[in-house]
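Continuing the series of single-chain predictions for the mutant panel. This is the parent chain; the variants come on the following pages.
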Amino acid sequence: GEISLCTLSAINWGNIKTPADFAKPCELAVRGLDALLDYQKYPVLAAELSTNKRRPLGIGIINFAYWLAKHDTNYSNPDLNLVDEWAEAWSYFLIKASNELAIEQGACPGVCETRYADGVVPMDTRKTDVDELAEYVERQDWASLRESLRKHGVRNSTLMALMPAETSAQISNSTNGIEPPRSLVSVKQSKHGVLKQVVPGIHKLKNKYELLWDQQSPEGYLKIMAVLQKYIDQ
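Parent structure:
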């Protein structure tokens, strides 16, 4: 059988200035995690066999609440076209990096079981109702990437996952994954002790942050998730 392992990372949206700036961090994340697959040891054979066949990665998003505050938008009334534009670039450069790795080092053995091998990217299989939230636009060079995917495949059968990022958020002083903060200053406790954490940019943006308990409805949050999932393969 097969056992799937979590080989995870996240792109800090708060440090990205323009969608084009996703190119380098996305490439580094894919190459770093892919190398780790060969470097690490596996506890059971089923995990090793599955990983070698599919080489799955899960690269997510961190500091999303800070990114929203920086762009003068929030969870309740989000700028969905802006979310769409940045999510598209994030997804595009992750797939492109894996495709380039496949050209250099070969596609994963299980590539024929992916839709990428047919030149199909996540947004091609979206539920089209989501286009009512954000206009469907291809801003990146998807045509060339689809052609290269059909020719060379991908090194990694999966690339994106919106994972929780509680610990890494503390280390990088970021807001947790894609979630809204519960307060501007939070106290977090682990086996290593107690840590007080302040949201990034609090002095300039404290009035821009929308806290979880201040939201009157989850509708805006769900719309953001609907737009993000257009571009996610897991």
